[in-house]
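for the writeup, i need someone to sanity check this before i put it in the appendix. the sequnce is what the collaborator sent (i think, or maybe the updated version? ugh). structure was predicted straight from it, no edits. if anything looks off just tell me and ill rerun, i have time this weekend
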Amino acid sequence: MTLEQLRIFVCVAERLNMTRAAEVLHITQSGVSASIGALEGAYGTPLFDRVGRRIELSVAGQAFLVEAEKVLSQVRTAQRTLSDLSDLRRGTVSICASQTIGNYWLPQLIADFHERFPHLGIELQISNTAGVGRKVLDGDAELGFVEGKYADAALTGWDLDGDRMSVFVPPGHPWASRRPSPEALLHGGWVLREEGSGTRSEFIGALRAMGLDTRDLDIRLELPTNEAVRSAVLAGAGPGALSDLVVRDAVQSGRLVRAPVDLPRRAFRMFHHSERKLSRAAEMFLNSLPAPRRADTPDLRLVANA
């Protein structure tokens, strides 16, 4: 059994599609199939069940996935250690970020960092806030960046200056020119991100701060990405609530209008595992970030449930 076989197995297990795994790994589909077949043949155990044209993890495959991920996490830790010992001639920072941060805020910072340290790599994964927390806890990412609260005593970090949430509608919507009443906000037929999204949790929190009972909130659509929410609002599905960073271009072009609803600025949050030593490359990346909000949270330990 080789590390490459483990990487291929995990990639297929995450996607349950050999063609997509091959595209991600930049190898042929036949190479992926051969690697999985070699593992199954060597141990006489099917790792996937073939159900029609689909594949599913077998019981053995589910158990093996847990152990394979542990091994690959340990390999990444060993690689970071060797990179540190080489005086940062090489190294990689592993980051997982929630969608707004990963797609709209981090890219410029990553580009600036790469220009200063072209010999250091950055691996960026995108998830929602809950997924980012899991990645950092499991050791699949050194650094996590989220715009929502995430609760776990094993994570430590601090706040960074973030963005402002906006309620936005198409130009012809009544809210484009008139401030909605509290009752209208509750029954607006919203298009929002999914449960677990920091953007959603921050918006719900803002409504509660206005004194609204969000248990009565009328949500028409729940969508898994910022872009899907923006597109649905453009199509007239209902009002949406996203970061200013996401809707800025559409507002500037006149395709969307910010509704006159006052929502507060929100902080972004960086965290890492408190019991795992950061690589020197990760420390350098943190030092390149904008100044943290240390006045009120000098070393924030995220323990309150959200």
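The longest helix spans residues 59-85. Residues 294-306 have pLDDT under 50 and may be disordered.
thx in advance!!
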